Amino acid sequence: MQSPPSARAGVVICPPLGQEGVIAYRTLRLLADRLEARGVASVRYDPSGRGDSTADADPEAQVRSAVRAAALLRATGVEQVAFVGLASAALVAAAAATEDDALVLWDAPDSGRAWLRRQRALATITVGGERVVDGVESLIGIDVTPDEAQALSALRFTPRTGPTLALVRPGGRAPKALGDVATAEAPGSAELLDGTSIHARIPGDALDAVVTWIDAWAPTTTVPTTAPVLEPLVDVDHRVSERIVLLGPERLFAVESVSSRQSPDAPVVVLHNGAAEHRVGASDYQVTLARRLARDGARVVRVDRRGTGESSVVRADERDYLFAQEWVDDQSAIVTALAAPAEQLVVVGMCAGAWVAGRAHEETPRLVVEISPNDYRRRPALPGAYSDAVRAIDAPSPRRQWIRDRYNVVVPEWLRDRIARRDRSGGVLEHVKPLVTQGTDVVVIVADGDAELFDRLGGQRALRRYPVGGRSGGVELVHVVDGDHSLFSPAMRATVIDEVRSRVREAFPVPA
After folding, report:
1. I want to staple 49 with a disulfide (CB 3.0 to 4.6 A). Which of 21, 56, 161, 461 is the partner?
2. Quick one: CA torsion of 481, 486, 487, 488, rounded to 10 degrees?
3. pLDDT digits (tens, 9 = 90+) for 272-297
4. How far apart are the first and last CA of the chain?
5. Which residues pair with 103 in a beta bridge?
6. pLDDT, tens digit, for every residue of 229-250?
7. What is the pTM of this model?
8. 504 with 298: CB under 8 angstroms?
9. Which residues contact 77 (CB under 8 A, 6 or more apart)?
10. Strands lying side by side in the sheet with 81-86
């Protein structure tokens, strides 16, 4: 919650579902910052059963959580409440808001049924393999039971008479079921939501439109507010407790999970998420992994590196730190702040987080697990350089496309491949060498595409050079056939969680 000592009104910022919420995290945090600057309190939350919240099988948890967030705001003293829902969260916001509440619907789908149909189509294309396991369906970044899928499908808009704003993409329209409501264009919505988190850009103009409308709606007078008292330690399930910690000189936001009977000899596990995404991971897998590791007896910290989640100041034009030295420095600061002895340290990372974990040689951890690594560069990138390059490749300008077409004709494929790999100089062998020569065991978990890259960049040579059980550390490969890089596949996530737990138990036989 962000609340000035006196507030004009309060805003419930509803999080979009699944990967939409992961991509939009920093945008919604910046929205809260800008509202606070206008004297408006706000609350952001993880719905019950999602993200960092505790487990909840109630199919109505999404709407119920939004209603509870509004009650929390009112308990601080604010009298007027607005709901803001981006993308799929527009359906949740509309269901939670009364006609006395204000409502901002930003890039709303036509209905829950339409949203679910599109997500299923995207998941079929992206995930591949079996998406339904034990009745639970995996979409892009969210798993849903049949009851929850039915509840989400049933969400729909009804005519609004209370203060309402519908923000639409340029040339778009508001859902017809809303009736005659104020509508404005929100440029940049596609650039935020329609790609991966690497492509996403914070839409400053759209944020301005939301803040301006709420500023005009909110009363000009303020009322004193009293911030709620937060529990410093939360009991998750009578076996695992969690607390928020701020680590290092950058005060990096992290969630620490421990067992109710923590051994002083317990392993300390640092979890790095992929890309520029925050601590929960694909389909909340890092939350699940952290809590299971804690039940096994480990002390676990899932962290937001700079430019992700709750760490560092948010700016509309912020640069990410993908494969940058800043994230390596963050890792050193995290380990130093945790005061974890090297012989008890485990570092686990996914994708870009795997690269960061692989740079932990100065911390000399006992074990490093790299999940879906796809870059083995030795020279860090400049802030923003990697994502800029990805955007240029995936959405080239007409001039760049013209050059690319001719380049592909003139330059042989073998040479193009070699040039494309020049920023990954050193390959797998040089990537793992600083770790294994100091006694660290490295486990690499990959799906098919990343396994092929591992082999192409010298992975098999690294396996032969540094076998497990040798004099120093060793390298081991776990190839998940038909898995996926992003861990949207339920089979891939289950394998990753089981492998990490088993490796930690093997290295640290501490009783649970």
Report:
1. 56
2. -110
3. 999 999 999 999 999 999 999 999 99
4. 35
5. 83, 164
6. 888 889 998 899 999 999 999 9
7. 0.93
8. yes
9. 7, 223, 224, 225, 226
10. 40-44, 9-14, 81-86, 102-106, 164-168, 182-185
